[in-house]
Amino acid sequence: MADFTWPVRVYYEDTDNGGVVYYANYLKFMERARTEWLRARGVEQDVLAREQGVIFAVRKAEVDYLKPARFNQSLAVSVAVVETGKASLTFNQEVQLINEGEGSGELLCRGRIKIACLDAESFRPRAIPASVAREIFGDG
Predict the structure, then answer these.
(1) 5-17 as b/e: b if 16+ CB within 10 A
(2) Contact status, residue 91 vs residue 79, Cβ threshold 8 Å
(3) What is the pTM of this model?
(4) Which of the residues are catalytic?
(5) φ/ψ bin of 42: left (φ > 0), alpha (ψ from -120 to 50), beta (otherwise)
(6) In this predicted structure, what is the pLDDT of residue 101?
(7) Vertex 130: Cα angle to 126 and 134 (nearest 5)
(8) What's the chain look like in SS3?
(9) Neighbours of 57 (CB within 10 A)
(10) Cα separation of 104 and 102, whole Å?
């Protein structure tokens, strides 16, 4: 499924009073993975805003929490583009527990995240610049 996978370690600050990852932090893990996915394709979001005048923002998030992650566990967060629009990208993402020596294992959380491309000043939808599409997809 994954186009890209990013490793995440669960820190104490990520957990709630019960010692498990606080639900909102899974969205942060997914955000980090999407940022690193872009970076791996040569797209830095601060440069994108400064030079192209566009930003990416979450438009919609659907998340299924299946099993808890706990302090100090290693996770793998995957990124896969499943839909593209003129001014949007939709990703399927999964957070899996990494079983040491075996790679990723148990599915803990999955999400479907729609990202909008916006004008950096007006925050209105704007087409993904062709140069950025070429970096992301290789052919624009």
Answers:
(1) bbebebeeebbee
(2) yes
(3) 0.91
(4) 16
(5) left
(6) 63
(7) 130
(8) CCCEEEEEECCHHHECCCCEECHHHHHHHHHHHHHHHHHHCCCCHHHHHHHHCEEEEEEEEEEEECCCCECCCEEEEEEEEEEEECCEEEEEEEEEEEECCCEEEEEEEEEEEEEEEEECCCCCECCCCHHHHHHHHCCC
(9) 10
(10) 7
pLDDT tops 80 at residue 138? no
Q: What is the largest CA-CA distance in the chain?
A: 48
Q: Write down all domains in the chain, each with its CATH number in brackets.
A: 4-137 (3.10.129.10)
Over residues 68-120, the pLDDT tens digits come to: 999 999 999 999 999 999 999 999 999 999 987 655 689 999 999 999 999 99
Cα Rg for the chain, rounded, in angstroms? 16
Cβ atoms of residues 115 and 57 within 8 Å? yes
Q: Which amino acid is at 108?
A: L
